Every structure is written in structure tokens, then in C-alpha cells.
Amino acid sequence: MMGIRAQQKEKTRRALVDAAFNQLSAERSFSSLSLREVAREAKIAPTSFYRHFKDMNELGLTMVDEGGLTLRQMMRKGRQRAEAGGSVIRISVDTFMEVLESNPNVFRILLHERSGTSAPFRAAVAREIEHFISELAHYTEATAKRSPELARAQAEALVTLVFNAGAAALDMKRVDRKVLADRLVIQLRMVAKGAEALQHKMENR
């Protein structure tokens, strides 16, 4: 069990991460946040920040890791929901849109830093996207009986479509997001059908 001091330290660290996430918006990327702003939002003295993170970059990289993990966990839940009955694509898209609505900044940091000016941040986002692709490729290979190469290509296409749709959906009204989600479902099904047809063709050469 954690001691009281360790629990307090973890609680303050969590408050700093949450404070930084809360300050992100369509107009504000992580690189525009200051240490003082984050510390003030977390209700700690700026000097106390360094007990938890080496600098703002370490905080930002922690947020990228957490954002990717949160999204992957939600998408796993979506696939589990689909196993109980329903379209895995439809349920996964609905789950993704729910995340964007309830916690948009988890996705926003991945989106902003994917093409940002910091090489370590770009590399961290690329690693998170690779985790998405690998996990989805493994799932597709197992459930749809795709070859490893085809499962990988399908996963890359799906993740690209979902990320692009997420970028567009972030600041949409709910009614427009619904239209986008319906179109995304069609696009993902087209990719899945194409992969299925390719797999069939490869098996019957």
C-alpha cells in the first residue's frame, strides 16, 4: 500500500496532468501553456511543479501517453460491447465519438502534437498511433482471418480514417458529428469489404 506522502504526491501529479488537459482547446495547444498557468490551475506553487515533472516537456509526454492509452482502452471497450451483439464498426465509431464529446482534450493533444514543432512529441504520438494500428491489426487478423500483411494494411487505413474524422469532429455540433459518424461507418465498411475481397482473391489464386 502507498504511504500517505506517496498518495499525496500521486494526487498532486494527477492534478497537474488534469490541469494541463483542462487548458487545451481548439485555440490552445500544449506548447502555448506555461508552467505557472498549469500550477495555478492545479492549486500548487510553481516551484512544487519540479517535484513531479522535470519540465513541461515531461508533463506533455506523459499526457500524450495517457491520451493514447485512454483512447485505446475506450476502443477495446467498444469491441467488447460489439461482441455482445451488433456491428463492431458502428459500435466502435459511436464509442470514439462518445470519447470526443465527453473528453475531447484526450484526443486533442494527440492531434495537435502529431504535427507540432517538437520532435520528441511527434515521436511519442507516432508511437501511440503505432499501438493503435498494431492492436487493431492483431484483432482483425484474429477475428476476420486476414493475412498479417492485409490485417496491417486494413488497420492503417482504418486508423487514418478515424483520426481524420476525429480532427473534423472535435469542434462540430452534435447533429453534424452524427452525419460525420454515419459517413465514417460507411468508409470503414468499404475498407473492410475491400480487404475481405482481397483476402478471398489471394486465397483463390
UniProtKB/TrEMBL annotation:
InterPro entries: DesT_TetR_C, DNA-bd_HTH_TetR-type_CS, Homeodomain-like_sf, HTH_TetR, HTH_transcr_repressor_FabR. Residues 34-53 bind DNA. NCBIfam families: PRK11202.1. The lineage of its organism: Bacteria, Pseudomonadati, Pseudomonadota, Gammaproteobacteria, Alteromonadales. Pfam families: TetR_C_46 (PF21943), TetR_N (PF00440). It comes from the Bacteria. One of its GO terms (molecular function) is DNA binding. The keyword DNA-binding applies. This is DNA-binding transcriptional regulator FabR. The keyword Transcription applies. Residues 11-71 form the HTH tetR-type domain. It comes from Shewanella colwelliana (Alteromonas colwelliana). Keywords: DNA-binding, Transcription, Transcription regulation.
